[in-house]
Amino acid sequence: MSTTEFTVVGGGIAGLVVARRLSMAGRTVRLIEASDHLGGTVASHLVGGLNLDAGAESFATRGNTVADLARELGLGDDIVSPGDEGAWLQPVEGPALPLPATGILGIPATPLDKDTIAVIGLGGAFRAQLDSLIPWFGKRTDVSLGALVRRRMGKAVVEKLVAPVVHGVYSLHPNDLPLERVATLKERLALHGSLAAAVRSMRHAMPAGTAVQGIRGGINRLVTELAADLTTYGVIVEFERRIESAEALADLDGTVIVAAPGILAPVRGRTVTLATLVLDAPELDAEPRGSGVLVAPGCTKVSARALTHATAKWQWLKEQAEGRHVVRLSYNEVPAGDFAEVARRDAEVLLGVSLPVEAVVDFARREWTRPAPLAPAERTDGVVVVGETVGGTGLAGIVTHANAAADRLLALAAEGPADGEDAATGDEPNEAAKEVS
Ligand SMILES: Cc1cc2nc3c(=O)[nH]c(=O)nc-3n(C[C@H](O)[C@H](O)[C@H](O)COP(=O)(O)OP(=O)(O)OC[C@H]3O[C@@H](n4cnc5c(N)ncnc54)[C@H](O)[C@@H]3O)c2cc1C
User: Residues 189, 119: one domain?
Assistant: First the structure.
C-alpha cells in the first residue's frame, strides 16, 4: 500500500503552493521535478555580482493572494511597491511618451486627460469618450480585448495604448487576448456600463493604488521560503525526474496533481528571451523613462518589446546596485548577431541616452517558454491540473487557482473513502481529482 497520498508533478510556483498546502494539512506529499532546482519560471541569476530575478520580478496585487502567501512565508515586511515614476511608451513613430498613469492594460480611465491626448490625439480621445454613451449588453463572452476596446473606444486606443501594454505584458496583440483572461474587466463592465468606469473601479480595488508589488531581494525569495516549508512539512522532493506523458501519470502514487506544462499536451508556447544589462551609466541616474518602456507592435526602431529599468522601479535594488543600473529587455524574437550588442543598442534608443560599450558591466541572457492555455479537449478526466496552462498568466492567478485546487482536494480527502475504498492510498488515485479538475 502506498504511503504517498498526493504526487505533485512540477516544482514551479503552482506545484510548490499545492504541495505546501497539502503537506501543511498533514497529508503525505511527493513532488517530482524535472530539473535540479525548484521554482520554474520564478528563478534568479547573478549578473554583475547582483542576485537578480531571472524570470518573474513582480506580482499583481489583485486579490492580495501573492502578498498573503508572502506574509505566510515570513516575507511580509519585505513586500515593496515600485517607484511611482510610471512607465513610458515607444510608439511606432515619434518619440517615447509617458504612459497615462491611471489606465489598466493601456485602457484609459479618463479618455480626455492630457497624457492620453498626448498619445492618441484629440480626435482619438473624443472617440474614446463615446464609450460612456455606448450601452453594454454583454451577450458575447468569446470576444477579444482588442475587439471590445475598438468597439467602445476606437482604433487609436487599441493600437497606440492597449497594444504596446498588452504586447509588453502578454507578448500578444490585444486582438489575440481573450477578454476572459483580463481579471474582472468583464464583470466590472457589466456592473458599471462603460470601459472607463470599469477601469476606474479596478484601479480603486488595488491596494494603495498600485497594480503590482515586489519583494525586497527579489520574487525568487518566494521559492526559497516555499522550499523550506516543504522540508519542514516532510514533502519528499525528487529532482531530475521528468514525467514524459499523460500515460506515465498512472504509475504515480496517490492523487496526482499536474503542475508542469507539456505532459497533457505538447507545449505550444512562445519563446521569450530576456537580456539583462548591468550598466555603469550616470546618465541613467535621472531615470529618463521612469520604470521602463513598452514598445508598440510594429515599431522598427528596436527589436525589444519592453524594457524595465529595474533600479528605477525597485528602491531595494537601487541601494544594492550602489550607483550602477540594471536594465532588463524582453524579446519575442532575437535578431541575428551579438545579442548583448543588440540589447545595448535597444537600451540606448528606448532610454534616450548614450550607452557606450564600456558602460556595460555585465550581460546575461535567459530564454523561457510561455505555455499556451490547455484546450478543454486536452484536459484528461480525473487529472488535477494547476499552473500557467489553466490558472492564467502570472503569479496572482496561478497562486489563487493552486490554493483553490489544494483546498478542494483537502475537502474531498477529509470526506474520506467511499464504498470501503481508500481513495487516498492509491486504490482509486484520481477519484478525488475528478471532482476538482
Ligand atoms: C520572462 C518572464 C517574466 C515573467 N514575469 C512575471 C512577473 O513579473 N509577474 C508575474 O506574475 N508573472 C510573470 N511571469 C509569469 C510567471 O513567472 C509564470 O506564469 C509562473 O511562474 C508559472 O508557474 P508554473 O508553476 O505554472 O510553471 P513553471 O514556472 O513553468 O514551472 C513548471 C515546473 O515544472 C517542471 N517540469 C516541466 N515539465 C516537467 C515534467 N515533464 N516532469 C516533471 N517536471 C516538469 C519545470 O522544470 C518547472 O520547474 C513571467 C514569465 C516569464 C517567462
Answer: yes
For residue 121, the enclosing domain spans 100-209
Residue appearing with cell numbers 532546482: 37
Give the total number of structural domains in the chain.
Answer: 3
301-349 pLDDT, tens digit per residue, is 999 999 999 999 999 999 999 999 999 999 999 989 999 999 999 999 9
Measured distance CA(116)–CA(90) in Å, rounded: 14
Q: Is the CB of 13 under 6 A from ligand 1?
A: yes
Same domain, 105 and 178: yes
Best residue among 21, 31, 33, 41 to mutate for probing ligand 1, ranked by most atoms within 8 Å of CB: 41
Domain boundary among 209, 224, 252: 209
Could you give the angle at the alpha carbon of 111 between the alpha carbons of 105 and 114, nearest 5°? 105
**Ligand 1 pocket, residue 263 CB under 6 Å:** yes
For ligand 1, whether the C-beta of 214 sits within 6 Å is no
Provide the 3-class DSSP secondary structure of residue 336.
Answer: coil
Note the pLDDT tens digit of each residue in 390-405. Answer: 987 789 999 999 999 9
Provide the grid cell at 385.
491540473
Both 290 and 334 in a single domain?
A: yes
Ligand 1 and 349: CB distance under 6 A: no
